[in-house]
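Suppose you are handed only these lines of text.
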Amino acid sequence: MTDVRIGIIGGSGLYKMDALKDVREVEVDTPFGKPSDALIVGTLEGTPVAFLARHGRNHTLLPSELPFRANIYAMKSLGVEYLVSASAVGSLQAEAKPLDMVLPDQFIDRTRGRVSTFFGEGIVAHIAFGDPVCKNLAAVLGEAIASLDLPDVALHRGGTYVCMEGPAFSTRAESNLYRSWGATVIGMTNLPEAKLAREAEIAYATLALVTDYDCWHPDHDSVTVDMVISNLTKNAVNAQRVIQETVRRLAQNPPPSEAHHALKYAILTPLDKAPAETKAKLELLLKKYLG
Ligand SMILES: CSC[C@H]1O[C@H](OP(=O)(O)O)[C@H](O)[C@@H]1O
Ligand SMILES: Nc1ncnc2[nH]cnc12
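From them, the structure of the protein bound to LNRAV4D5 can be written out as follows.
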């Protein structure tokens, strides 16, 4: 099956897409193990999409336990070329209020030891990652948000997402440090996904849904899971409307993306000299370069 060009990864609070029609569950096995859950394949206004609950439908996986490689590989195996990640984030800036939406264009990596590459085992590749988000996909998300009437939701285009290890939230000193770096929002999941999506030549963009002010804000309580879920539940309807409108626009006018040829100048190892086993494992990603 290779007809699903649009993928959605739902994070904390977004475990399903209510508007999906003709739904079927697809259990995918990959050379990197099983994804977080079955992929839910269906149609949104006639357009095929694949949805995956990042932490599993019952939220059973910690950020550090997520099978990032399997998740992205599974999306690629269905034919996904555009991947929208909906994620709960804490805000590090006063102007990004809870329930606002941010479209980050940069990341800072504060994770530890997460495997964020498909490569190794005899094949070396270094993708360009100076612009980690597909700007054309983010622009479609931005246009979709702007076209909708979302009361009390401000849109922030651009910004830096700090990806921390978790699962504990930050200390106040850390939160203030990230603020001093000029970062906009904080979460625990999107950076490995963005790297792997780029290696898989999938255009990736984050729809960051602000749920809290982390712990730095003098006038707000420090973040708790209750706070995150209650705000994201309020936001889930909006997020689904945004995704639906984004899918409609992508189906009408799929934009070009530099991500779609990210491996063109990234692979250092001559593939005719590479181990057959690794080539077989990465065939899905490498096939257009294998000649
Ligand atoms: C439940 S609060 C912390 C949790 O929420 C975010 O998840 P996701 O990015 O999947 O929406 C954050 O990254 C943490 O994993
Ligand atoms: N304050 C926060 N820190 C890290 N991840 C989050 N997800 C939602 N809020 C968060």
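What can we learn from it? The chain has seven helices and eleven strands. The longest helix spans residues 225-252.
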